[in-house]
Amino acid sequence: MKLRTVAVLGLAGWLYAKAPRDPQEWPAFAGEQFATLREQVNEAIEAGKRASERRIEQLDREVAESFHQADRDGS
Amino acid sequence: MHWSDVLKAALSLFLVLTGFALAYMFLRMAGVFGRLGTSVTRVTDQVVPILSKAQTTMDGVNREIDRVDEIMVTAVNGAKGAERTLQTISSAATAPVRILTGVAAGVKEGIATFVARRVADAQNEATEPGAASAAEESSATTAAGSATSEGAAS
Question: Which of A15, A52, A54, B140 is the right S-S partner for B106, CB 3.0 to 4.6 Å?
Answer without folding.
Answer: A52
